[in-house]
Amino acid sequence: MQVQPYLFFNGRAEEALAFYAKAIGAETTFLMRFKDAPEQPPSEECGNYSPEHIMHANMQVGPTQVMVSDGAEPNSAFNGFSLAVAVDSPEEAARVYAALAEGGQATMPVQETFWARAFGMLTDKFGVSWMVNCER
User: Which ranges carry the PhnB-like domain (predicted)?
Assistant: First the structure.
C-alpha cells in the first residue's frame, strides 16, 4: 500500500510544476491536459477550466510521487497538512527553504531543534504548507 498526495492548483498547476522543478528539482513524469482526455468530462465536473489546463500530472521528488491537477476542486484550500521534505545537510535545508518560500510566507525560520540539525516551516506561494527537515 502506498499513499500519495494529490494537489489541486485551481488553474495554476503548470506554474506550480515549473516552480517546484526550480525550487526542489521536481521532475514532471506525466502530464495530460483536459483536451487530451479520450472523452471530455462534463464541464460541471471540472469547474471552469480550459482545455489547456492540466487534468493530471505526476511530479517526482526523489523517491516520492506527488499528483497534480487544475482539476475538479474549484474551491479547495491546502489546509490540515504539510508536505515534509527531508534533506541531508543544514545548508541544503536553508537552500530548499529559501527556494520554496519565494513569494510565500515563512512560518518558522530554519533553525536547530532538539530533533533536527535544521528545521523550518513555510507556506509557499500556492498555499501549500511545507516542513523542511535535516535530521540529527
Answer: 3-132
135's grid cell? 535530521
Check residue 37 and give its pLDDT: 84
3-state secondary structure of 9: coil
**Residue 75, CB-side half-sphere exposure with 13 Å CA sphere:** 0
- The pLDDT of residue 121 is 98
DSSP assignment letter at 42: P
Give the sheet arrangement for strand 105-111, strand by strand: 83-86, 129-135, 116-123, 105-111
Residue recorded with cell 482545455: 51
**How many C-beta atoms surround the C-beta of residue 87 within 10 A?**
20
Domain that holds residue 88: 83-135
Hunting for cell 535530521 — which residue is that? 135
Residues in the chain, total? 136
Global confidence as pTM = 0.89
